[in-house]
């Protein structure tokens, strides 16, 4: 989806790999939106999220797999990344909240639980494969950049 040879694409990829929080937007069967901040991993193809079981977000995804993900708007709102996609549940014991990549990413973030305990609590893995990525950077004084990619 992103071309790492293009500087702005590389910037977006770097943000997706390093930002600590992504906002997950789901909707209930009646259409009511629900938004939650989540820890995540981006591998260049998909976003992995780890959830507590029996949550509204899981029930919403089970009813409607269309989701939106958004990074915090960096640079006082001038650097925006939004991902639309399809969410699926993953039942693979090797993909969990104790994965080395996730532990490393959050190694400097204060935790309530050690990684293995966190992984047991946040045991439902969600994969989001992007169908559309939209991003823009409009910092005053810099040339604006915009990208909209459908897969």
Would you mind describing this structure in some detail?
Helix content is 25%, strand content 38%. It is an alpha+beta fold. Strands 1, 2, 3, 4, 5, 6, 7 and 8 form an eight-stranded antiparallel β-sheet that branches. 23% of the residues are buried. The mean pLDDT is 93.
List keywords for this structure.
single chain; alpha+beta; Pnp Oxidase, Chain A; 5 helices
Quick overview:
The protein has 151 residues and is an alpha+beta fold. The chain is built from five helices and eight strands; from the N terminus they run αββββαβαβααββ.
Number of domains: 1
> Which ranges are low-confidence, i.e. pLDDT below 50, for 5 or more consecutive residues?
none
In whole angstroms, how far apart are the ends?
7 Å
CATH class: Mainly Beta
In CATH, the architecture is Roll
Spatial extent as radius of gyration: 16 Å
| Fourth-tier CATH superfamily name | Electron Transport, Fmn-binding Protein, Chain A
Query: What share of the residues does DSSP label as strand, in percent?
Result: 35-45%
| Mean pLDDT reading | 93
Helix content: 10-25%
The biggest sheet, with number of strands, parallel, antiparallel or mixed sense and barrel status, is: 8 strands, antiparallel
Helical stretch tally: 5
Q: Note the overall shape.
A: globular
β-strand number: 8
Using the coordinates shown, work out and report the CATH topology: Pnp Oxidase, Chain A
**What's the order of the H and E elements?**
HEEEEHEHEHHEE
| Sheet/helix structural class | alpha+beta
